[in-house]
Amino acid sequence: MFYYIKRKRLKTGGIQYYLYKCIYIGKGKKKHISLGRIDQIEQLLENLKTQKTLPRIYMEAAVAQRIFSQSKSDCSSDCSLGATQCHQLWTRSLVALPVPSEEEFRQWMEFKGFLRRTIEDKLRYLRKLPRIVTPEMILSGEIPFNNHMQQTLHYIALYLFETGRLSLENQLRWDRLLKQVLRERNKRLRAKRERGAQEVCDEDILAILRRVKDSHYYIVGKILLASGARASEIGKLFTEYDPRKWEHHNGVSLYKMKWYRGYKICEYIFLPTEWISEIEELLKRIRRGEKIKGKKMIVNERRIQANLAPVSKFRDYLYQKMKDMGYEEEARFIESRELPVSEEHYDKIKKRAIQAYKQHWKPHIKKLLTKI
Fold first, then answer.
1. What is the 3-state secondary structure (H, E, C) of the chain?
2. Is the Cβ–Cβ distance between 206 and 269 less than 8 Å?
C-alpha cells in the first residue's frame, strides 16, 4: 500500500490536488481510493490540532463508558420500569442531533472515501429526517428505524464529532442508544419470523378481490396474486412500463425489474403470458385520462395500498401455498426473497421456478379466480 498525489485540471482553468491510496489486491491488480482534496485534508488536520488533546479524549471515553456501565446496572432484571422507560432515564441528558445539510454530508462522505452507492443510500435516509433528531423520536418510533437508518444516524453523529459540533461523550452515547434500539428491533423481528406469517386462506384473497371487482384495481389485484410482488414494485411496473423487458417462457412471462433498494430486491415479476394484454390495455386507459366515478384512473404504490389492503396478504399467500406444494425455494426466487449467489445455481433455480409456476401456481390461481 502507498499514497500519492494526483493533479486534476478544473473546467474553470484552475488545478486541484487529490490524495490517493493505492492497495494491491492480488494477481497484479491494484485498487486506487481517493481520500479527498489536499486542501480539505489540511483543513481537517488543522481542526484536529485545535480540538481537545489525546489524553483528554481518552479520559472522556472512559467517563462515557462508566456512565454506560452504570446505566446498564441500573436497568437490572428486577427493575420495575419498562425497557423504554429505562432508555429514557439514561438518555435524558443526551443532546439532540442537528441534521446537517445534504450537500455538507455528501462532501464529508466523499472525503471519507465512501462508495457512490453508499452515499446515495445514506442521503436518501437523511432526507427522511427532521432538522433536529432527539432520543425521544428514536424511542417512540416517530422515526422509522432499521439497519440503514441506524447507520445513517451513526455517520451523522460521527460527522458532527469530527466537525467539532458534538462531544466525544455524546457521540458514544448516541452510538450506544442506536445499537440498543436496533438490537431490540432485530430481536422482535426474529421472534416474528419464528412464529411465521399469519396463515392466509383462499377466502382472505377472494374477499379483497371481490371488493374491487368493478374497478380497474381488480386487474392490479390479480397481478399481486400471480406475482407475489410488493405494492411499490407493481406501482413501478405501471409508471415505468417497457414492453421490451418481458421474457417469455411457454405461457409464463417474466418482467425484468432488477430493482435493488437496501435489503429489498425485485429481480422479476412473474405473470401468465395472456395477462400482458390486460396490463397494456389498462395502461392505455390510464394514459388517455379515463375516469371512474369522476376520478382519474391512477395506479401507484399509495393507491394500491389503499384499495387492496392489506397488500402483504397476496405475498404471504403465494409463499405459503407454494411451500405447501413443496416448492419453497422456487417461491423464494419468484418473490426475490432470497437469490442464489453462484451463477450456475441461479440459472438452475430460475428454470425450476418457471417450471413450478407453469405447472402448479398458474393453474391454482386460475381455479381460485373462478370462485369470484
1. CEEEEEEEECCCCCEEEEEEEEEEEECCEEEEEEEEEHHHHHHHHHHHHHCCCHHHHHHHHHHHHHHHHHHHHHCCCCCCCCHHHHHHHHCCCCCCEECCCHHHHHHHHHHHCCCHHHHHHHHHHHCCCCCEECHHHHHHCCCCCCHHHHHHHHHHHHHHHHCCCCCHHHHHHHHHHHHHHHHHHHHHHHHHHHHCCCCCCHHHHHHHHHHCCCCCHHHHHHHHHHHCCCHHHHHHHHHCCCHHHEEEECCEEEEEEEEEECCEEEEEEEEEHHHHHHHHHHHHHHHCCCEECCEECCCCHHHHHHHCCCCHHHHHHHHHHHHHCCCHHHHHHHCCCCCCCCHHHHHHHHHHHHHHHHHHHHHHHHHHHCCC
2. no
C-alpha cell at 69: 456501565
Contact call for residues 135 and 91 (beta carbons, < 8 A): yes
pLDDT in tens, 93-128: 678 899 999 999 999 999 888 888 889 889 989 998
- Average model confidence (pLDDT) for the chain? 82
What number is the average pLDDT over the span 68-84?
A: 43
Q: What is the pLDDT of residue 196?
A: 53
Beta bridge partners, 271, equal 253
Neighbours of 284 (CB within 10 A): 10
How far is the C-alpha of 123 from the C-alpha of 152, rounded, in Å? 8
246: phi then psi, degrees, rounded to nearest 5? -80, 140
Separation of first and last alpha carbons in the chain: 67
How does residue 153 score in pLDDT terms, banded at 50, 70 and 90? Answer: very high
pLDDT in tens, 227-239: 999 999 999 999 9
Phi, then psi, of 306 in degrees rounded to 5: -75, -40
| Mean pLDDT confidence for 70-82 | 42
The model carries a pTM of: 0.54
* C-alpha cell read off for 277: 394484454
Average pLDDT over residues 267-287: 94
